[in-house]
Amino acid sequence: EVDATAPAAPTAVLDASADTGVSGDGITSNAKPLISGAAATSGDTITVTVPDGEVLTTTVAANGTWSVTPTVALDAGETDLSITATDPAGNLSAATTLTIEVDATAPAAPVAVLDASTDTGVSGDGITSNTKPVISGSAATSGDTITVTIPEGEVLTATVAANGTWSVTPTVALDAGETELSITATDPAGNESATTALTVGIDAVAPTAPAAVLDASADTGVSGDGVTSNTKPMISGSAATSGDTITVTVADGEVLTTTVAANGTWSVTPTVALDAGETELSITATDPAGNVSA
Question: How far is residue 216 from each of residues 118, 241, 247, 260, measured CA to CA in Å?
């Protein structure tokens, strides 16, 4: 029998069993990945040549499939494998080039914050009245997958954009109080970063309406009657929540603010003289989450 016809160039792929991370992208964290093919001619010999010098051979099975596994780890980065088929008559196919990228380096732990768009109240304090706040990050690697795990069970994922940013929004309201989110990055090769912990405080309860009085130091004449000769009288209060912001709005338009002290007291003094006669002041308390009292 004379056979002078070379086999077709073999089809070769990074085998699914060794293709970590994103399936079919040719990137793996496995430095000795299985290489395989199908639809070859039974009995042909497949030769896989690795640039570092290793040569792997196998015989095509009766069903047309074949596979080889390097015994020497492939270098990090891209490696071009040259793959040929040789039939029993010695005819050699054209070479198939298969590019495999080995990436065994985990991404850096992601930077994550309570997004400014849902950080109500004091900016950057990690406390919000929004029970489904946006969680976001930047300076991540484009194409990585960010996974945000919430203790009550919801798992949120997002793909890092070309500019390195990402964001997720819970679909289930976070519990009141502090919630610690667990956040990781996974690259296309399947390498997972260390975990970043982000604590988000949920406070959707408004403070009680503040108690306020004409301060004794500015209450001339009969004490406690709310009448004074001082046109810029001190207004004060007590039993408020430390850290809350008190806002005093004067009918003539002046707005005065102060922060409640550790002992629950606060005071403000108008800079513009109040008009003669009665003046009605409007006084509210705002907590760090941005909730405003009656």
Answer: 41, 21, 20, 18
